[in-house]
Amino acid sequence: MLKLISASYLIALILLSLIPVSGIEAPGNSDKIAHFIAYCGLGIFAYFIARSFNMRFYLFVLVIAIGVLLEGMQLVIPGRSFSYLDILANASGTLFGFGLSWMFKASTETPRFGGCGSPRTTVPVKHREEKERN
Fold first, then answer.
1. Of all helices (H) and strands (E), which one includes residue 31?
2. Separation between Cα atoms, residue 119 and residue 52, nearest integer Å
3. Under a CB-based contact definition with an 8 Å cutoff, are residues 63 and 38 in contact?
4. What is the largest CA-CA distance in the chain?
5. Are residues 100 and 40 in contact, defined by beta-carbon separation less than 8 angstroms?
């Protein structure tokens, strides 16, 4: 279900990025905020559909590449304009979304014995004594 929602979100993002717009100008830098929020959401979806670190890394790179590609395609769409600041907002949003997701996931998981970052004191006393004898 999450993959379907993620794919729908991505399709909506692509369509909104490529629809020709004329005469509508965003006040100030509000479009940069919109880019940041949109790619933050995409980053969150990408983080949670991936099951491994490698897959998350590839999806992170893919989401940033999609942002760059869509921004580049706006060069040839009437009423749209290319902006390096939009690319920066896309990448920043993606990074923030992945970071937020990582913090959420880390705070809701219980540490496993022997896992990265698990404290040494969580080793049961019986196992510790067996290790010291061997």
1. helix 30-49
2. 23
3. no
4. 78
5. yes
Number of other residues whose CB lies within 10 A of the CB of residue 38:
21
- The helix (run of H) or strand (run of E) holding residue 98 is helix 84-108
Tokens found for residue 102 = 């990582």
Per the CB < 8 A criterion, the answer to whether 74 and 28 are in contact is no
Residue 43 region, left (φ>0) first, then alpha (ψ -120 to 50), else beta?
A: alpha
Q: What is the pLDDT of residues 94-125, one digit of tens each?
A: 999 999 999 999 888 776 655 555 455 444 45
- DSSP H or E run through 67: helix 53-73
Q: What is d(CA 44, CA 60) in angstroms, rounded to the nearest whole number?
A: 10
Extents of the domains making up the chain: 1-11+29-111
Structure tokens at 107: 């705070």
Specify whether the CB–CB gap between 106 and 116 falls below 8 A: no
Q: Count of H helices and E strands in the chain?
A: 5, 0
pTM as predicted: 0.77
Report CA-CA distances (Å) from 8 to 32, 53, 69, 108: 22, 24, 18, 27
